[in-house]
Each structure stands twice: as structure tokens, then as C-alpha cells.
Design a protein that fits this description.
This protein is an alpha/beta fold and 233 residues long. It has nine helices and five strands, in the order αααβββαβαβαααα.
């Protein structure tokens, strides 16, 4: 996959990729990023930053996803409601046992067909069948697995067993609040896909690692980001 090209842009590649990283890594608005750059003497409008995120964010996210290793064979699925342009829709999410976001999927319904669509998307994307599916007690998951004839993997459906996926919704809620809601399903899906790739790269379980290990992992994350952005270290 080719690196993004910054040719023809007035600002250098370092500034552009940094703006994209700040927006996707933290709970910031475009105007927040504009102010942070202004404090450092870089005058760039929030509209320009928005265009950079749309153009380069998707490209960088695809390259980050291509670098990820095979996911853990225990998958957690969950769904939550989101309000998009005044309408209630549903964000379906899959994470593995390590907390890696496998996929996020906006759908208008919360039923067996929607659960089955998410499962099919995961199976096609990763070309593997997990050893375990972990869900809450919502019956649509079991019905979707039976429809797909996926009886070999273990299906664990119990209260509080799916905290891994439910906790993964928290950063999205923060972003949704900061953005004052999503404007369309397409823009929501685009943001969530870019955010998930960045989240997977930079989220480090600090309580499980030493300070030295944490610094090494963070350095690796920055190296992966800059390589995906096509910016020399």
C-alpha cells in the first residue's frame, strides 16, 4: 500500500500528519487543534484541518490496519445506540480479548439481521473463525450464529462477561459528545473507523506494564504512525 502524498500542500508533511494524529488520538474538535497549532505559531484554519483528516486520516488508518497482527481468537460483540442527525441508530462493535477493536459498524436496526451482518463482515475481514464469541444476553447474537451455522465456536452469553466490549464504547461516547453528535451515518462510520485504527495503535495497558516497557511500546506506536503517514522518523 503506497504512502500518502503531501505534494501540492502549503504545509509540510510533519504539520499535516501531526494535526491528523492530534484529532484522532485525543478528544479534540477541529477548533481545538487549530488553537493548539496557533499557540505554537502555526496559523492554520479548522476547515483545513478537517480536510486533512478526511484526506489523510483514512489513508493512514488503512495502512495502520494492514500492519496489525492476527487478532486473539476470543471475540466480544456489543451494540449501543447513537443519535445521528436526530435519529436513533446503533453502533455495533467487536473487540478481541486484548481490547483490540476488530470493527465498528453503524446500522439502523438492532436485530438478528444486523448481528448476522456484523459477524459476516468480521469473518470475511479476518478470514478466521474465533474459538469463542462473547456477548451479552441479547438473543439476536445466538440466533445469528445459528443462522450462520457457526456451532463449533463456543458462545458465551452472560451478565458482566462482555465488559471488554462495553468499556470499548467509552472513547466513542466522549468523541460523540465533543462532536455534538454525528451528522450522518457515513461521516460517523468514517470517523469511527479512523479512530479505531488510531486507538489500537496507541492504547497501551499501562497498569500491566513497567514504565520502561510502556516507553518502548509508545515509541513503537509513534514509529508505526509515522511510517503509515509516510513521514520520515
Amino acid at each position: 500500500m503506497t504512502a500518502p502524498s503531501y505534494r501540492g500542500y502549503r504545509f509540510p508533511a510533519d504539520v499535516i500528519q501531526c494535526a491528523v494524529w492530534m484529532y484522532l488520538r485525543f478528544t479534540l474538535s477541529y477548533r481545538d487543534v487549530e488553537d493548539l497549532f496557533a499557540e505554537r505559531g502555526v496559523q492554520v484554519s479548522y476547515e483545513t484541518i478537517r480536510r486533512w483528516v478526511h484526506v489523510f486520516g483514512r489513508h493512514i488508518a488503512r495502512r495502520l490496519r494492514a500492519r496489525r497482527s492476527k487478532p486473539h481468537d476470543r471475540w466480544h460483540l456489543d451494540e449501543m445506540f447513537v443519535r445521528i442527525d436526530g435519529k436513533q441508530m446503533y453502533l455495533w462493535r467487536a473487540v478481541d480479548a486484548k481490547g483490540e477493536v476488530l470493527d465498528v459498524f453503524i446500522q439502523s436496526r438492532r436485530d438478528k439481521a444486523a448481528a448476522r451482518k456484523l459477524m459476516r463482515k468480521l469473518l470475511k475481514k479476518y478470514a478466521m473463525i474465533p474459538d469463542e464469541w462473547v456477548t451479552d444476553r441479547y438473543a439476536a447474537y445466538g440466533a445469528a450464529l445459528r443462522d450462520l451455522k457457526l456451532t463449533t465456536p463456543v458462545h458465551i452469553s452472560a451478565k458482566r462477561m462482555n465488559n471488554r466490549a462495553e468499556s470499548s464504547h467509552v472513547p466513542v461516547r466522549r468523541g460523540e459528545w465533543k462532536l455534538q453528535g454525528f451528522k450522518s451515518p457515513r461521516s460517523a462510520q468514517r470517523f469511527l473507523s479512523m479512530h479505531a485504527a488510531t486507538y489500537n495503535t496507541f492504547t497501551i495497558p499501562r497498569h500491566l506494564t513497567s514504565a520502561r516497557t510502556q516507553r518502548l511500546l509508545r515509541a513503537e506506536a509513534f514509529s508505526a504512525w509515522r511510517e503509515a503517514a509516510g513521514v520520515a522518523a
